[in-house]
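Troubleshooting: if your tokenizer reports a length mismatch, compare your output against this known-good record of 251 residues.
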Amino acid sequence: MSEWLVLAIAMAAACAVVLTITVLRERRLGDDDDPSETPDVIEYMTMMVGVVYAIVLGLAIAGVWEARNAAQDTVRVEAQALHEVTERVRVYAPEARDRTRKDVEAYVNYVLDEEWPVVLEEGELTDKGTKLLEKVREDVSSYRPRDDFESQSYQPLVDQVGAADAARTARGLAAGPTMPGVVWFGLIGGALVCVGLIFTLQIRRSPRELLLAGVYSAMIAFLLFLIWDFNSPFGHSVADSTGPFSDLFST
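Known-good structure output:
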């Protein structure tokens, strides 16, 4: 199911629930009910709860956004480092050069085709991917330079493999969801409280009040969806975050 469809369903459902409850509640009220009798303290409490929940939502969105940006940076660093290896290894002997490029290509293909779905579903790296990268490290570090020119290229190549390995480790650490379950409990509970407080203000079935109630509930649904979407640092599909690999390698 498309994420846009999920968002549309969530927002529509939130609006429908709030408007339905409002209409049903209005029918059950007597003619002597006066909405102006709402105590001022309730209006003040409603405002304070809304402000506090808005701060919590803002912090949650900032947290998942920062985590996603950091995760995407690790992908770019890993892809760029491996690309540098394939380019700089041209100074090696043809046999060593071709073997290194072949092993880098095998690692990239495995990451995109097999490891990335595991990262998205289970939140962890695979042992085979680690072994493939170790093979690249062995290709680079075990080479014996034949002259000064190759010696000058040796250490930068080793450093690039080390950078790719470090980025891979960081990618594994960032693979899991950002928000813990207790935070989700607070976000969903706070949303229910904020929407529920609408009814303490005794809103009526006037078009203006119904519109505001619907927009308010839809906005909260949208923000919760935004947090859910960003809660997966590498997105919800392989194509969401593998752009740097696809751009630098013809896979």
